[in-house]
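Supplementary Note 3. Input sequence used for the single-chain structure prediction.
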Amino acid sequence: MDNLINAIDKIVEGQVFKIVISNKKDKENKYNKININFKESKNKKYYQVEKYTDKQVFHENIEIEDLRDHLLDYMENSYKQLAAWSENTTFDLKISKKGKVFLGKKNANNSNLINKDHNKKKNYILEEGMIIEPLIDLGVFTKEGKVVKSKYDKYKQINRFVEIIDDEIKKNDYKELTILDFGCGKSYLTFILYYYFVEIKKINVKMIGLDLKEDVIKKCNEVAKRYKYDNLHFELGDINGYKYNNKVDMVITLHACDTATDYALYNA
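The predicted structure, written as discrete structure tokens, is reproduced below.
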């Protein structure tokens, strides 16, 4: 255990910007590998953790000071190999079947890796590799979670919408939210927002979509059931005069026609 702690300490002290953890100890572990990348946005520095299953990738952001504990947990309990890169050093950590710890360390100029990372395309909240059923049904993602080239502008537009919501959500440590969608229509963005709140932000969210078209409401409720979005449901009703007796945290409305926008703003 001491040897593992010492090895992890050396890696963390090296101010690494990229880590790849692999070779899982238990076949029952659903995460085949874990990537950890240093990120910087505005005035915040953090690490983004990407956990890969056979079909999906799950994201989590961790504080700089929490990296050591996470690495120690991963390597002590779940994985046998770790590679890490700092600007001037490459680390290679391996754990044998008998539990012996081997740490390789060599000097290397990894600045080209840093540059490649910084020159990557924009990091979107809804990233390629995620299996997001509404985006697949919308034709934006393939079944493998890849962006369809002809839908890339739509993909960027949807992410921008989510980013606007994300900017507001970051202002408070929300545990629960109740959200109304006035004039939800086919509700593609409603479904995508539900995924964002539940799967990415891990917020206990209740969402209600409201629309005048009975066939649309029926279809949306069927889709929500198919996605297993248990706290998302749709109601038939008019924005004008709609009443909700409990607390509402957020109201969204898109493409409202005629006076519907005015009613939506008034009720919000």
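The first strand starts at residue 18 and ends at 24. Residues 2-118 form one domain.
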